[in-house]
């Protein structure tokens, strides 16, 4: 191994260690309060070392967001693999269930995905990094859109625009996940997350079958 190779491996290792420390810091204490100094202390490096690898706190969060989105897309793709030719309704339900399970098993990543939609996060990171986040986000939505498109082709779904229909599916289910995250709302609605999620999914599927997107 050359000196250059060793340096590259060491740099990659240190970067992973910083991200590991940042993940622990942000997931334990939230995304707003921790600072770059806190991440540096957790990683046991100087603040200056952090800036050798990441330009800002927002850039660190963006890379953690990419991790979460990759896990989500992998879960959704895995949900499609067992039977690619399964009926579109069943495929759509499998994708939705994969999303629900991801949010339940990775609540911190889910909160980070939601946080990305708010504030001025886009302005705080480079255009290229934001493009990566956007493209990875679109991969999951594209799986839904292609499932809807196949349903339209087979006559199972009735919609004019598969992408818009996929957006309606995402908006409806995501709304449930956000709404039901608080126990008080569950008590007010006299329901739990999985029951409300399934009820909403049923409405969305019926809407697609009837041609009246939610």
Write the layout of secondary structure elements.
Blueprint: H1 3-29, H2 36-43, H3 47-53, H4 57-80, H5 88-105, H6 107-116, H7 121-124, H8 127-154, H9 162-179, H10 183-189, H11 193-210
Helix pairs in contact: 1-2, 1-4, 4-5, 4-6, 4-8, 5-6, 5-8, 5-11, 8-9, 9-11
Give me some keywords for this one.
globular; 214 residues; 79% helix
What does this molecule look like?
This protein has 214 residues and is mainly alpha-helical. The chain has eleven helices and no strands. Helix 1 (3-29) crosses helix 2. The N and C termini lie far apart (58 Å).
In short:
With about 210 residues, the protein is mainly α. The chain has 11 helices and no strands.
Task: Report the sheet-strand fraction.
Answer: under 5%
Report Rg.
Answer: 20 Å
- What is the β-strand count? 0
Structural class: mainly alpha
Note the overall shape: globular
Count helical runs. Answer: 11
Distance between the termini: 58 Å
The average pLDDT score comes to 90
User: Secondary-structure element order, as H and E?
Assistant: HHHHHHHHHHH
In the predicted model, the low-confidence regions spanning at least 5 consecutive residues are none
Largest sheet: none
